[in-house]
Amino acid sequence: MTNTQSYFYNIIPVHINISEYQREQILLQFPAPELPSGESRFLIDQETHGNRVRTRLLLNDFTVQRTKTNKEFLKMRFSNNAGNINAKMWDNQGAVERSIPLLEQHAVFDIEGKVEEFNGYKSLTIDSLTPVEGEVNPFALLPYTEQNIEDLTVELFSYLHELGTPYQEIALSAMQHFWEQFSIRPAAKGYHHNYLGGLLKHTVGLMRFARYILRFEENHYKATMKLIQVVEKAHKNELWAKIQAPDDVQQLVWKNTIDHLYNMLHGMMQYKDSTPNYDLLMTSILFHDIGKLLEYDHAGKTDDTLKFLYPTATIDGYGNRKQAGITMDELGVMIGHIPYGVLILSKIIEKEEIQISVDAIHHMSHCILCHHGLPEWGSAVKSPGSIEGYLIHIVDYLDSRYENTETVK
Questions:
Q1: Is 162 found in the same domain as 273?
Q2: In terms of domains, do 187 and 308 share one?
Q3: What keywords would UniProt list here (predicted)?
Q4: Pick from 66, 41, 83: nearest CA to 75
Q5: pTM score, two decimals?
Q6: 334: which residues sit within 8 A by CB, 6+ positions away?
Q7: Residue 155 CA: distances (Å) to CA of 176, 194, 200, 207, 250
Q8: Are residues 54 and 97 in the same domain?
Q9: 232 and 330 together in one domain
Q10: Are 176 and 116 found together in one domain?
Q11: 150 & 237 share domain
């Protein structure tokens, strides 16, 4: 079975040549997350005023307010995978006092109420809310990628299976430990890939760029220059569209990017006598954002990665935290995904007793540490110190911005 498509303004070819049996084996070992059925998706905009509803929602925030007659009521903002839902609860028979402790302690609720419409805006008036205990499916509560997660999964592992020893062992070992969480985690809170499945999609995107530069073009400098030229053309199209429709609020994705890309290309030139290590770069890409397993929090996130890194640590208090929408993890943000990536890479190599040169470990760690490119953008080193270091930053930079041009996220 050959799946042929393209990426990045149809410039980058994407060839996945595997058998149907291989596809089935990948998905058997690394299953895609279970998505909610269409029938279970509550869309308030499709409801009629006065409808009675029962649904499961994620609480984002709440406040206690007062009516003009000085009566208390709860104003709440919920969400599900279709978006935000405004709601209120009147203080009938002490409902406000009874509900506040529940709202402070829990994040997921089964609610019953009625659809209201005022000036074209729909909301819920809630009669009762019941906290949901135990595991929840985050895909029923949070936005997730619209792309086929099974296809992204198969593409990722088709690339990993191409790698040689010891890189394939490192990559597959990481996925065997973390796949369930890796497959659902967002890649950001706001700017790009800020939805469930975003980390998987972003990682595959970087690999597509890297494969194009090192496998589909004869020279990685020429390939990089071609990509920059594509960005220049895309930016000109953005500017022309803005001239024609100045009131359009559409963001200029490629604004202030071209000079930076050329500066990075210039930095690459000091390593023109170095041959990029494809396997090392692809493995580094897998780990470059894997620290986001710890840096971000949301309903449905488990503590498996934390326990993997710190097996003797107690996490009782942390494990009882309230989880809701996509936020920065209260502990994870203290370290950040970049240092976490190096810690996870080192732990995998140690735990699986993988034989690899200390030079390769440092080169992969350097790629993870420098993938943001500049210290003011979060890079842990002053500037990339290898050809792979420059390449991982360039492909990360391109993919994180290109995602904001796609119609299907």
A1: yes
A2: yes
A3: Hydrolase
A4: 66
A5: 0.89
A6: none
A7: 16, 21, 10, 10, 31
A8: yes
A9: yes
A10: no
A11: yes
